[in-house]
């Protein structure tokens, strides 16, 4: 009996060892993936904090631990770009694009590659002003305002640039200063914009505060004044009370009225029809008169339902538009806060 028990124990141990051996690599792989994710998180934090060499090292470590962590290539490439290692940055970001194929891309990659391309063109002295303006716009969106103004200066220093590009570059330069918190420099750019390009208009997509400042400078330029005191002579901006009501309010008002009228007609016509319905059992001239009135009530009820349904649809559209307006206002407020902070 002792010998049999020993044999069974040996067999159980023999079966358990392979199972444990299979679990060990899985646990090890999961541990590597967790460590890779942690390294990537550190790399992102260092990138945001301006610790570019540490960010590059952590990102490289993350990708070595987990080759499916494609974002590590992006972080390392961006870090190399800020470190001035242009060729390495371009190689990493290009590799990332190739690996991803048709999969969703990190939104930081395209502007980074565009600016790397323009930097190379600027070094050679041969660049496309339109590409430079696009790169400047991307730089401002990334809050790399100094880089954006470098590109704008390159556009301005090139001969034969189309006036439209120069005007857009001046508008973008003003916005870059506003994002830096340098409102005086932004106002100077806008004043120059309206002096050199009288046909230029105030950008209605700006947040309220810079849009108002831009409108004031337009008034200064048009009045021929050179100081901010002349801004009082410029036409005042329309007050909120003078502005047309928003589309959401119009939709809600029209929809509510149509729904009330339509369903009111439908309800009244239904009541009339129910009163006429018993008379349909009669015969002769009375039946003819009753059926005509009943059909008219039936038709009016259907028309009322259609009008009410249209009103309800307008109310729904108004609510959707109101939600969209609120989201847009929140984005504008966030942009205003971002623009107002140096």
Give a description of the structure.
This protein has 342 residues and is mainly α. Among the domains are: 24-106, Serine Threonine Protein Phosphatase 5, Tetratricopeptide repeat (Alpha Horseshoe); 247-340. It is 77% helix and 0% strand. The protein contains twelve helices and no strands. The chain has helices at 2-48, 52-65, 71-82, 86-100, 109-124, 129-141, 145-156, 163-180, 183-196, 208-223, 247-276, 285-340. Helix 6 runs antiparallel to helix 7. It is flat. The termini are far apart. Mean pLDDT is 73; it is low at 1-24 and 225-244.
Question: What layout of secondary structure does this protein have?
Answer:
Blueprint: H1 2-48, H2 52-65, H3 71-82, H4 86-100, H5 109-124, H6 129-141, H7 145-156, H8 163-180, H9 183-196, H10 208-223, H11 247-276, H12 285-340
Terminal Cα span: 85 Å
Order of helices and strands: HHHHHHHHHHHH
Shape: flat
Radius of gyration: 35 Å
Structural class by SSE content: mainly alpha
Number of strands: 0
How large a portion of the residues is in β-strands, by DSSP E? under 5%
Average predicted confidence as pLDDT: 73
Q: So how many helices?
A: 12
Tell me about the largest β-sheet. Answer: none
The helix fraction, in percent, is over 70%
**Poorly predicted runs of 5 or more residues:** 1-24, 225-244
Task: Describe, in short, the structure shown.
With 342 residues, the chain is mainly α.
Features:
disordered N terminus, 77% helix, Serine Threonine Protein Phosphatase 5, Tetratricopeptide repeat, 342 residues, 12 helices, mainly alpha
